[in-house]
Design brief:
It contains 3 helices and 27 strands. It is mostly beta strands and 344 residues long. The strands form 7 sheets. An 8-stranded antiparallel beta sheet has the order 12-10-4-3-15-1-17-16. The chain has a 6-stranded antiparallel beta sheet with strand order 19-20-25-18-27-26, with helices on one face. Strands 9-5-6-11 form a 4-stranded antiparallel beta sheet, covered by helices on one side. The longest helix is centred in the first third of the chain and has 15 residues.
Length: 344
């Protein structure tokens, strides 16, 4: 099932920094939300429509236990939006919205590294920079995964609308001392969230609660399937993350050996050549069953890129493993680590 979620008000998705009464006054917001937020909203929606099953929540017979998010994509009025990969840079001397894909070159003893087995480096020509919060339309994302070196990016129509409030005493319902706060609300102008999932049955349209303060959003089922973006790759290829991924070894997936940066299975033999990885995100949350904070994990951000060489195997096996698949090792069912193959 594929649904499109459109907010009816400002939204607040808090990061994992502390926000204690009397100590912290500014609640930082993020966008887009982590996949776990969408996952939780879908489960809440199900139980709101099936209250007779709520007693089974977070138990062995939980009716939402088979829920699996298979894709999360932003959308504006006209097209889908994918996070711009981190191997795309913008010229400092240009005002157009053109991004350049960096070239992969041999290291050739240009520097010393604590990862000597990574044999390639990304090289930029001229004065360039990475810009945050840029996106590629589905048309230009398709160009990117098929190897084009120049593409055009889009910016989200999102406005910051800080909100000031004060907490009230639960006993007296009057303003509490040392409880003034401000939170970073976001207003999404013509931006919606498209979610593809399986294992859960919900009404074809309705309202759901999303983010902090349980703000209202409407959703509707979208009948057409999301394009898979067929890709033609050869011996050299890259894997691009479109949602954050949590790997047990940090920035590198566990299936890759840290000794020689290779991966071997019955059908595939790969070697990691290079990687473009952004600053880690801190992913947490609150466990409603245990009434306590969930463990914090460092996540590789969306847009991160891993370059590989296929030493043995068939491209069809690569597509089955990596293309539009979740490769996160933690919270995979929640939609973390959605990846696409791309041509170098």
């Amino acid at each position: 099932m594929i649904i499109e979620i459109t907010p009816l008000d400002t939204l607040f998705f808090r990061n994992s920094k502390t926000f204690f009464k009397g100590e912290d006054t500014w609640g930082e917001g993020i966008f887009p939300p982590y996949p776990s937020v969408i996952y939780g909203a879908l489960r809440t929606l199900y139980f709101a429509n099936n209250m007779d099953t709520f007693e089974y929540a977070n138990k062995e017979d939980d009716p939402t236990k088979n829920l699996k998010i298979t894709n999360i994509i932003l959308k504006n009025k006209h097209y889908l939006l994918f996070p711009m990969p981190l191997d795309c840079v913008v010229s400092k001397d240009s005002n157009d919205k053109k991004a350049i894909v960096l070239d992969l070159q041999d290291v050739n003893n240009m520097f010393f590294s604590n990862y000597p087995n990574l044999s390639k480096i990304l090289v930029a020509k001229g004065k360039v920079e990475n810009k945050k919060n840029l996106y590629l339309s589905d048309e230009y994302f398709k160009d990117y995964i098929n190897g084009k070196k120049e593409i055009y990016y889009s910016e989200l129509g999102i406005m910051d609308e800080p909100k000031i409030g004060i907490a009230r005493s639960k006993e007296t319902h009057v303003s509490a001392e040392s409880a003034l706060y401000r939170i970073d609300m976001k207003r999404l102008n013509d931006v919606s969230i498209v979610v593809e999932f399986e294992g859960l049955s919900i009404p074809k349209k309705g309202l759901l609660k999303l983010g902090g303060e349980s703000k209202a959003a409407e959703y509707k089922v979208v009948e057409n399937n999301l394009e898979r973006f067929d890709v033609k790759i050869d011996r050299f290829f890259k894997v691009v993350l479109t949602t954050p991924a949590i790997f047990k070894k940090g920035w590198i997936p566990s299936f890759i050996s840290e000794e020689n940066f290779e991966y071997k299975s019955e059908n595939i033999h790969l070697k990691l050549l290079a990687a473009v990885v952004g600053r880690p995100l801190i992913v947490g949350g609150f466990d409603m069953k245990k009434r306590r904070a969930k463990p914090l994990y460092k996540a590789v951000p969306a847009g991160s890129v891993y370059y590989f060489e296929l030493l043995k195997g068939d491209v069809k096996d690569l597509i089955r493993k990596f293309h539009k698949k979740a490769i996160s090792e933690i919270y995979q069912k929640q939609g973390f680590g959605i990846s696409y193959l791309a041509k170098i």
